[in-house]
Specification:
Blueprint (H helix, E strand, L loop, with lengths): L2 E7 L2 E9 L2 E9 L5 E7 L11 E7 L15 E7 L9 E9 L5 E6 L11 E6 L19 E6 L10 E8 L5 E7 L12 E5 L14 E6 L11 E9 L1 E7 L8 E6 L4 E2 L7 E8 L9 E6 L1 E5 L8 E2 L4 E2 L5 E7 L2 E2 L11 E7 L13 E2 L3 E14 L10 E4 L4 E2 L10 E7 L14 E2 L5 E9 L1 E7 L12 E5 L16 E6 L9 E8 L3 E4 L4 E4 L1
Length: 534
């Protein structure tokens, strides 16, 4: 036969059922999570409420203040409040009405709670007393939910009234609340001597320690409640382990800087290299053509070093690092060779090899070691061609070496009607760049063209016995192939100008042109008059 036990407590009910001393079938427990309610009963204590009842009941949540009903009435008595005073309740509570003797109407006393509350929730009560009465019933003491302590009424003298009297509750400020603040250093140490347990008044701030901990950085407290205390506080120090960093730099290689994290007290292995590095060899043909224009030469990783130049402490991948401080490591790279060099080409020039500078450089070959980008320059020997440019020329082609001046042929060319001035790279030049036998410094295949100046000749007009009458000059300079201009016809008193002896056109030499004259005039009579005839 089963046996049941019911246990009542709080808001839960437990039942236990036993089938026999050796058999327990189970325990069932039901939990009610709804708020707990309690009952406040107001007993009129010989009086009655307005509805004729002698009591009223109010149900409220536990911890709440029940609302008092209207004041009851009682023949021959004056309602004086509830006992106990109405306040927060956590269990079923009965409030009993308090009664005082009714005195003939005389004067009224106004009782002011001065910020507190009477049992009915009001802040003022009015009582009527007979004049001359020396004994009177004060209302129940008001309460103050801010914590103030009731000290009595003022004024306290007996009143004979009228007029009406106002009496005020007197209060003493509530003592400040105090709370305990505890600082837990959580493994740290505080050398300042600040107390770790402090009693602090409400609204004030505790004095926090400044702890330290080897290998950790202090991060503050898990709560800031100690800064403005409103209750007990338990503050725990928060720590972050110190971390150190190993930085890996490519030092001219490709790839982003890497970072390795090391916790305080730990030992870590140095990373393997993950960077790559190459140097570029660029080929400058200096006027020629070449393929390819460049080659990239790969460098091999050597080791790590604390100095970019490799003059610091050497570290190898896999080495163990235990120091509690940051470390910067720079990749060190082995030199590589220039490698295969292409052969450039240029028309009318001869390749003389690769050099490390465009001028005045040293020759390089494929076995030369490099550890940075480099440009190599082709040096050439150039052909120099001579062109008579209308004259006669059988000068041999010359070879000019790179950066070495070339002495040009000193031979003076000839051309009828022209004078040889020298050489120019411009076929149509009127003035020379180079004189015969001059020095050519240009590093390039060069074509030189003879520069000519037309020859000039003197043409003289000889008047002989004649007289100059103006016009062109008697002595003129005429360029090769040109023509002179004869002066005006000269005159003579007894002779007649007969023309010019000589060719003053298409001049190709100095020459004199002579005036020709006929004999004096002969006069004859023609039967009518005299006339001249030749």
């Amino acid at each position: 036969m089963p046996i049941y036990w019911d246990f009542l407590g709080g808001n839960s009910t437990s039942r236990c059922m036993c089938m026999s001393p050796r058999e327990i079938t189970g325990v069932v427990r039901t939990v009610d999570d709804t708020p707990k309610t309690v009952t406040a009963t107001f007993n009129a204590n010989g009086g009655k409420f307005s509805n004729g009842t002698t009591s009223k009941t109010v149900t409220v949540n536990s911890g709440s203040i029940p609302t008092a009903p209207e004041n009851p009435t009682k023949s021959g008595s004056n309602f004086a409040g509830w006992s106990p005073p109405v306040g927060p309740i956590t269990s079923n509570t009965t409030y009993t009405a308090q009664w005082g003797e009714v005195v003939p109407e005389g004067f009224r006393i106004y009782w002011h709670a001065s910020g507190g509350q009477f049992s009915d929730g009001s802040d003022q009560m009015v009582r009527t007393y007979q004049g001359g009465q020396s004994e009177w019933v004060a209302p129940q003491e008001p309460v103050d939910y801010t914590g103030r302590i009731f000290q009595g009424w003022s004024p306290m003298s007996p009143w004979s009234g009228p007029p009406d009297v106002h009496v005020y509750a007197q209060w003493e400020a509530a003592p400040p609340k105090e709370y305990t603040v505890i600082f837990d250093l959580n493994g740290g140490i505080d050398w300042s001597g600040t107390p770790l347990t402090q009693i602090v008044q409400e609204g004030s701030s505790a004095q926090a320690p400044n702890p330290t901990r080897d290998g950790y950085d202090f991060q503050g407290w898990n709560t800031d409640a100690w800064r403005y205390v409103t209750g007990d506080v338990y503050a725990v120090a928060q720590w972050k382990i110190k971390q150190y960093y190993i930085y890996y730099y490519p030092n001219g290689g490709s790839g982003s800087t890497q970072m390795q994290v090391k916790n305080h007290g730990d030992t870590v292995s140095i990373y393997n290299n993950s960077f790559s590095k190459s140097v570029r060899v660029t080929y400058d043909p200096q006027g020629g053509s070449v393929s390819p224009y460049y080659r990239d030469r790969t460098q091999t990783f050597a080791n790590w070093d604390t100095s970019p130049s490799g003059t610091g402490q050497t570290w190898w991948p896999g080495d163990r690092y235990s120091s509690d401080q940051n470390l910067a490591l720079y990749a060190q790279w082995q030199s590589t060779t220039i490698g295969p060099l292409p052969i450039p080409s240029m028309t009318d020039a001869f390749f003389r090899g690769w050099h490390d500078r465009s001028h005045g450089g040293a020759a390089v070959d494929e076995s030369q070691f490099i550890d940075s980008d480099i440009t190599v320059y082709a040096y050439w020997a150039y052909k120099v061609f001579y062109h008579a440019n209308g004259g006669e020329c059988d000068l041999e082609t010359q070879i000019k070496e790179y950066d070495v001046g070339l002495n040009l042929h000193s031979y003076i060319l000839e051309r009828k009607g022209y004078r040889f001035l020298g050489w120019s790279t411009n076929q149509y030049a009127t003035s020379p760049q180079y004189r015969p036998g001059g020095v050519l410094n240009t590093n390039a295949v060069t074509h030189l063209y003879a520069v000519w100046e037309r020859a000039s000749y003197t043409v003289t007009f000889d008047l002989g016995i004649g007289t100059y009458t103006g016009g062109a000059a008697l002595v003129q300079t005429v360029t090769y192939g040109g023509s002179a201009t004869p002066p005006n016809t000269p005159t003579h008193s007894t002779r007649k100008f007969f023309g010019w002896a000589g060719d003053y056109r298409n001049i190709d030499s100095d020459r004199t042109i002579y005036a020709m004259w006929k004999a004096s005039w002969i006069w004859r009579y023609n039967g009518r008059t005299w006339e001249r005839f030749y």
